[in-house]
Amino acid sequence: MPKLTSILPTLVLAAFSATAQPLATNLTPESAAAAALENNRDLAAARFAIRQAEGRLKQAGLWPNPEFELSRQSDRAFANEGEYNFSTGFRQRFPITGRLSKARAVARVDVAQAAAEVRNQERLLAGETLGLGRELLVTQEKLQANQELQSTIQKLIEVSEKRLKVAEVSEADVNLAKLELQKLTLAQSALLNQQEIARTALNRLLGREPKTPLEISGAVTADFDTNSIAEISRRALALRPDRQLAALGIDRAGAEIKLARAEKWEDWTVGFGYSRERSIFTEPVRLDDTDNLVGLSVSIPLPLWNRNQGRIREAQATQQRAEAELKALELRIATEAQTTENQMRRWLGILRQYREESLTLAEQNIGLLQKGYADGLVNITAVIQAQQQLTDLRQAYLDALGEFIRARTEWETATAVVLPAK
Fold it and tell me: Strand 84-94 to strand 214-216: parallel, antiparallel, or no bridges (unpaired)?
């Protein structure tokens, strides 16, 4: 399989040109997957999750804002003797247990999780795009085979109609050939409908309008390197971004536990203030007294009843759940990789049997019968029956090829090899 990184720069330009001009774009399944990673609109929206997490990381490292206090009191509304009280102050909360650093640790894991989640969406998108592109290639193979069979049947009908005029064959024999041709024509219409549906779906994944012209080129190959396939399947756990995401869930829960324990002690508050007070005394002697005061205060919340124990237990349970989910996911990944690899091997064996035995024998048989029919030694019914048999075998072969391609795409998605290397 060609490396997606080698075609990515060229593909970006091609995708931009296709968006700017309503011209047909010719892509391979692999280049279509690379284009989808660049242009898919759902993926573009999902990538903003990373920027959101980065914003939370920046916010997590900020100190609480200081508080400025200002107040004035007077007796103007009552005796109006000139008494007043004026004060101003400054208060600042101080995290004393490393709460900010632990909050930043949680936010850093959030950023890594967002990146892993986007990476996993890229894996699924690339796999879906590859699958649709290869499905189109198989459909094109079916259309080509159908057209070749139609051409063969049409020639048989033309020969039969000439023989019908000289009473060498019956009209029923000719009608039998025409019915076979009609069956192929209807099958072709169904294939064209499948092709249009796949193109529409592929255009959506490429971030383009549904009716944008699109052609998929390339060869449908039914082979693989047994040794490399087995090795990649074994490394699937290390390659899957959703497994990395699940492992980060454990790290985040651990960071949450540390943060919850740190928040057992709330922030201390330190205050500095200045006040000026004027008092008037009238008995027994009028006295005007003005005082200037400077003060320092410290507020220390005591964790007597609320020690954040509920949140600590919640974070511990979250970590245990994340560990259990990781084990389940690892089993699922290993099963997916092994199952799809086994499917590939089985379908490859079936395809080889079709190519080397069934199709070869059917093609030889139809050649002999056509020659016998041309020489007047075989009736048209035997030729049509042989042709139907060959048609059914080719259809079965292409269906099996489609199943092999589907299994291969699912294996590539399960092992994350659909992703470009970073």
Answer: unpaired
- Tokens in use for 112? 């890594």
Nearest CA among 200, 220, 217, 218 for reference residue 209 = 200
The CB-side HSE value for 191 (13 A sphere, CA atoms) comes to 22
pLDDT tens for each residue of 158-204: 777 777 777 766 777 778 878 888 888 998 999 999 999 999 999 99
Rounded to 5°, angle at Cα 164 from 163 and 170: 120
Per the structure block, which two tokens stand in for 66? Answer: 């200081």
Q: Answer yes or no: is pLDDT of 20 > 80.
A: no
pTM of the model: 0.80
Most confidently predicted of 54-68, 120-134, 160-174, 272-286: 120-134
Distances from the Cα of 266 to the Cα of 52, 64, 68, 307, 400, angstroms: 27, 12, 20, 10, 66
Degrees to nearest 5, angle at CA 209 with 204 and 214? 80
Instruction: In whole angstroms, give the CA distance from residue 5 to residue 347.
Output: 29
For residues 118 and 244, give the distance between their C-alpha atoms in angstroms, rounded to a whole number: 12
> Residues for the chain: how many in total?
422
Closest CA to 418 of 36, 20, 157: 36
Q: Return the structure tokens found at 251.
A: 């790290």
Tell me how far the alpha carbon of residue 248 is from its chain's centroid: 18
CB 267 within 8 A of CB 99: yes
Helices and strands: H and E segment counts in the chain: 12, 6
Residues β-bridged to residue 288: 280
Nearest to 279 by CA among 71, 70, 75, 88: 75
